[in-house]
Amino acid sequence: MEVEDVSENVLQVHLNGLLQINDKIALKEITRQLNLENVVGDKVFGSFAENLSFILEALKKGDRTSSCPVIFILDEFDLFAHHRNQTLLYNLFDISQSAQTPIAVIGLTCRLDILELLEKRVKSRFSHRQMHLMNSFGFPQYLKIFKEQLSLPAEFPDKLFAEKWNENVQCLSEDKSVQEVLQKHFNISKSLRSLHMLLMLALSRVTTSHPFITAADLMEANQLCSMDSKANIVHGLSVLEICLIIAMKHLNDIYEEEPFNFQMVYNEFQKFVQRKAHSVYNFEKPVVMKAFEHLQQLELIRPVERTSVNAQREYQLMKLLLDNTQIMNALQKYPNCPTDVRQWATSSLSWL
Amino acid sequence: MAYCSTRLKSRPTYSWVGSPLLDQKLHYQTYKEMSVTSNGCSTEIRIQVGQFVLVEGDDDENPYVAKLIELFEDVSEPYCKKRARVQWFIRFCEISVSKQHLLGRKPDVQEIFWYDYPACNSNIDAETISRPVQVVALAPDEVLPTALKNEKTFFVKLSWNEENFKPLSPELFAELNKLQEGSPRGQKPMKTKNSSIDSPSWTSAKHGVKRIELRHSTSKSHQIPTHLVTPRARKRLELGSFPVTPHTRISQQTSRVPLESPRRTKRKVASEITSPSKRSQPDGLQTSSPALKAPEKTGERRRSCAEQDKASHERPMILRTRVPALKTTEISQEITLDPLRGGKRSSVVPSVVLKPQKMKKREAQTPDAQDEATSTPHRIRRKSSLLTLNRIRQQLRFLDGSKNDKEEEEFLPAAEIADSDSEEEEASTPSLPRKTRSCVSRNLHSSTKSSLHTPSKTPKKTPKPRMPRSVTPQIRSRNLAVRGPASVLEEARLSLHVSAVPDSLPCREKEFQDIYNFVESKLLDHTGGCMYISGVPGTGKTATVHEVIHCLQQAAQANDVPPFQYIEVNGMKLTEPHQVYVQILQKMTGQKATANHAAELLAKRFRTQGSSQETTVLLVDELDLLWTQKQDVMYNLFDWPTHKEAQLVVLTIANTMDLPERIMMNRVSSRLGFTRMSFQPYTYRQLQQILMSRLKHLKAFEDDAIQLVARKVAALSGDARRCLDICRRATEICESSCQKPGSPGQVTVAHLLKAVDEMFSSAYITAIKNSSVMEQSFLRAILAEFRRSGLEEATFQQVYRQHVELCRMEGLPYPTMSETMAVCSHLGSCRLLPVCGSVVEHPPMNQEVRVEFPIRAHARVVGSIPSVGCAGGS
User: Fold this and answer.
1) What homologous superfamily is domain A3-124 in, according to CATH?
2) Which of B672, B799, B838, B858 has the smallest C-beta neighbourhood within 10 Å, fewest atoms?
3) ATPase AAA-type core domain spans which residues (chain A) (predicted)?
């Protein structure tokens, strides 16, 4: 049977767990897409309960020989499993397992444990037919995909350019450095979506004056992709804020990641300032407090508990959301970092 | 549609002629003569006691022939007060095919046989008598006189007692001849006049002579005086007369419902047979002429036979039509007549003893009935168990053989049961042989007998759902027709689909029995009650209840149990527990109301007297979903049945056995009572039997394969649905694995194993194998961290440090925090890692993700990492 024949002879209902966030909306959407009798224009009439019994009635009435088959495609299937009582799933599965209108339910999800989300009576009605689509390809195929994705199709109007472009892509795929970039990317994620992201970043550098992608473009794109976002934020901090972060790092080292409060950080900072009074300006406490709050807004630190109105802000327990290595790496790249501060960062005992 | 038109045209009225003779010991009055007047025309036929008459049966062409013995009026019959007792004659075509050879010669078309069979009911509704006819008795070696060779005369040479043909006894012969001679005009039955004079010897006391009008012209072909009543009458007759002992007056009872639809009447009749009753008449009349009683059946049979091609011919009297009739109805006869044998066997023995009929029937049944049946004294028990067994047997047999000749034997047991219980008419049509021939049902039964015999659990489809709305929901119909199964495997797949409801549920006989008994006893007692049914999914709870209800509905149609209304609600099909009121109300009355209003209406209905006397059977599926904070829904559901007036039987189904104790308040669970039943998961033998019963006729599976899947599923869950799913998948695998498209061959153990693996093996290992290098090393980092800390959960930061170390050791490029985070969230999204701390929900916070590993997840990861290729440290 031809594909057109099939698609003509079936009704399709597309649902997405992100759009149809509860059964009520989902039922309305099904009714709309099936174009049942209680649909006027785009509106579906009736209450939730009415809609449910209406659809059930409609599907119950049909039988294998006379009714048009219906295919339900549920994208983000796992989200449907979170609907109340899983009513929709139960009913769809139940219909598919009884001699009513012939329906097929196809659920799409990325979760491997989807069966555990189903209630047992729903699970029993599920046919347990699962297909797993894995990225089972190796690097050579990945390279091939890379080429195919970049190549211009034959129907591209400017034949000459297309030819040149494709040649260039072929060269790129044989370039060592490009392969290295791709290999690195491949190691991190096999998903084609992340490959697309990488290629889009590289492609956006193409201009009339720079008509072809170069290996450098790709490397730069890769750098953008793999950049550590937190470290980037640290680069933009003021010296005072860096100092506070270093103080927090020391506190973490001393107290083994126990939460700290502003007062502790301030004391630590004061100790450093007293030792190296000449190199760091001694800011007043409210100023330091402001910097501290800024760090919180940047989400480099986070309160352990919810901020209560009553609690004094100085004594609220906080946690640092940066790793030591991140701090050290960021400091190395930090422009115009005072040497004392850098030394202090490496060791809290540097004054000795 | 000549038949229809004639039927409509003439609606005859029956009236007594002469004054009644009051029977001394009976409470009814006997008459000597009856006149039949057709409304449409002015003709009138007189029929006297002692005459030979045609009795309407199913087949208008070949009506039954009988001798009228007595006419009387039975006051106890509400509808058909006019009764007649007859002695049946049987036509050759009405004799069961398998016994026809006993005659040893070719019968003449006009030949009929004295039906010497006392078990046959001789009491009929007088209004089924259509007109007089001539019957001539001949010596066995006598040749049919040519003068009599017109179509409207029958002659008798032999008698038939269901066992063999015998010559007529001299007395009988003399008597018959006397009649004949005494009423010379009787030989021309078409002449209306003769009816009154026909048998003077019998009509000794004639009171009042009424005018005799020519009702039947000689041609008489188009005027069928009795027609309006006929279809019913026929059926009534059939049933009533069928295997019943001569002492009972069943036909009388049976024929009293002339206004109902034919089918309905049939059932009524049958039920009356079983519950025979108060009207036990001192059968003086009947017993007085035992010889005459027997032939009753013959007449009926003959008639029904003849009727079959009535549509094509004009008059029932015409004998030549019988031969074609025979041919056309061969199949149905085969089936229908066989049960007679069974019926006869069973009923012959006890027929002599005067007993309540029910008892007799039971007795009759036991010899050929199944062993289980006899043991239980309670009627219900036996009956239903028989039913189930019978059903299963039928189904199995049916699977075995598809040929007619086989069917013949198959149906025998069904018939035996049914004609004694007469409860399961639908399922075992053959028990009522004439029904098969009836105009209405003939097509159905003969063409689709296989499917009709066990319509069992398809009631869902048949009753039209109540649609109070103006809009009727409907999915549009399909453009392309369904393709039939092309191969054995496809066929197997169809019959393995869960929706292919089997004709009976194997392996649930006991549960069926218990539920059936429960509901039936409540129905019979006109009380209410609750029953709680539990069991894991896929153990056939709902299916069994459906089957019970279906059987009961049939029994109700047969009047074995009082009629009841059946309502089904499913907790899962409600948006909210209180909607259950709306659904119940709507299904009961068709009303629509809000939940609160519906609750009030229902409470009123169930708590006050005076509403309909019909019992309501309510099935509440997925009961646990009706739980509310106040538990008012459950409370009401279980409280209503306790009211005397409610007559409500509530069957509840849920998965957990201890649901009442666990979630219900005391006052609710106390009302639910302790009528509990739990469905155990199927054992492998049961699963095997289920599969076998579905696949019996198909050579699609190896026996070992079936056993394997049964054992696998039984070990896992005992879920029948799973079992069927696996088998269906296996057929697909078999199909795709086979190169030759034409002959896929059988499903082997290998195919099944593959299907089982597909369904039960987890995809985690494959997923890990196919994940990227970073993802794999992140998983190893987690393991390393677990080992280091000895805990089974770790924060992302801790794992990250391990991860960095690992990458350094492996020579991988340094992973940044962001990259690792992406890896972690990817693993989390496909649940290779159970990530707590909400990576998804609060992305800004995800720095502090805690990657927690519950024990199972841990085990999973540990188990699968080595397969990735590198042991995680240590």
Assistant:
1) P-loop containing nucleotide triphosphate hydrolases (3.40.50.300)
2) B838
3) 34-129
- Segment B61-80 shows an average pLDDT of 70
- Range with the poorest average pLDDT among B50-54, B260-264, B771-775: B260-264
How many angstroms separate the CA atoms of A47 and A41, rounded?
Answer: 17
pLDDT, tens digit, for every residue of B634-674?
Answer: 999 999 988 888 889 999 999 988 888 888 888 888 888 88
Give chain B's domains with CATH numbers. Answer: 12-178 (2.30.30.490), 508-679 (3.40.50.300), 684-760 (1.10.8), 763-863 (1.10.10.10)
In the CATH hierarchy, which top-level class contains the domain A231-346? mainly alpha
Residues of A in contact with B534 (CB under 8 A): none
Stated pTM of the model: 0.61
Domain boundaries of chain A, sorted by first residue: 3-124, 139-226, 231-346
* Amino acid letter for position A45: F
DSSP result, A245-261: HHHHHHHHHHHTT--B-
Structure tokens that stand for B272 in this block: 């009356």
Residues in CB range of B676: below 8 A, 6 or more apart? B531, B532, B533, B534, B657, B660
Task: Compute φ and ψ for B157, nearest 5 degrees.
Answer: -120, -40
pLDDT digits (tens, 9 = 90+) for A123-153: 999 988 888 999 889 999 999 999 999 999 9
Q: A184: nearest CA in chain B?
A: B813
- Separation in Å, CA of B397 to nearest CA in chain A: 24
Please state which of the ranges A145-159, A182-196, B24-38, B763-777 shows the lowest mean pLDDT. B24-38
Nearest residue in chain A measured CA to CA from B805 = A325
Q: Which of residues 83-112 of A touch B (CB under 8 A)?
A: 85, 87, 90-91, 94, 97-101, 110-112
Chain A residue closest in CA terms to B569: A53
Minimal Cα–Cα distance from B861 to chain A, Å?
14
Contact A190 B721 (CB under 8 A): no
Do A189 and B826 count as a contact with CB atoms less than 8 A apart? yes
Q: What percentage of chain B exceeds 70 in pLDDT?
A: 53
| Adjacent-strand bridge partners of B361 | none
Element at B69 (helix H, strand E): strand B64-73
The answer to whether B160 and B90 have CB atoms below 8 angstroms apart is: yes
Does residue B350 or residue B68 have the better pLDDT? B68
Identify the pLDDT of residue B180. 56
Q: Give how far A300 is from chain B: nearest CA, Å.
A: 9
Neighbouring C-alpha atoms within 13 Å toward the C-beta of B512: 27
Average pLDDT over residues B523-545: 90
Q: Which of B20, B32, B48 is nearest to B197 (CA)?
A: B48
